[in-house]
Design goal:
Largest sheet: 9 strands, antiparallel
Number of helices: 3
Order of helices and strands: HEEEEHEEHEEE
CATH topology: Pnp Oxidase, Chain A
Structural class: alpha+beta
Distance between the termini: 23 Å
Oligomer: single chain
CATH superfamily: Electron Transport, Fmn-binding Protein, Chain A
Length: 150
């Protein structure tokens, strides 16, 4: 790419825009015995946490509930945002209605409706990194230990 590397402030703005406007992301989790699992899921961002929903008995649901950590990825490989976060598991009826309604409006899917038992997974970011090309690898960390650096 012929564009100069973005500043940390530009990367943060781009990341926050992506969180506010993208609908889907990649969710990487692992079982207790280290078997990796990667799936795309829809999400909702409230400015502080990401909200995901998946069947409680699915590999992702079991992994997130057991491990309580996750790695998420948004964007293409040449413009990626990677988020590591802590996971809080919420029963389907434990989430405030307005947050569930925002999730449904954004994603077009209501996990409160299926007969399959779903859980909500609220992810609080601990680490956020964003880069496009190799020239953006230095300074790619935008959040560390839950605090924005830029």
């Amino acid at each position: 790419m012929n564009t100069p590397p973005r500043s940390p402030a530009e990367r943060r703005r781009d990341t926050e825009h992506r969180l506010a406007h993208d609908i889907d992301l990649w969710v990487a989790s692992a079982s207790a015995d280290g078997v990796p699992h990667l799936v795309p899921l829809s999400f909702e961002w409230d400015g502080e946490t990401l909200l995901l929903a998946t069947p409680a008995a699915s590999p992702t649901g079991r992994n997130l509930a057991a491990g309580r950590t996750v790695r998420l990825s948004l964007g293409a490989t040449r413009d990626v945002t990677v988020i590591e976060g802590d996971v809080e598991v919420l029963e389907r009826d434990a989430l405030p209605g307005e947050r569930g309604d925002r999730f449904c409006a954004r994603t077009g899917f209501d996990p409160r409706e299926p007969t399959t038992p779903y859980h909500w997974f609220r992810v609080t970011p601990r680490l956020v990194q964003a880069w496009r090309e190799a020239d953006e690898l230095p300074g790619r960390t935008l959040m560390r230990e839950g605090t924005w650096l830029a």
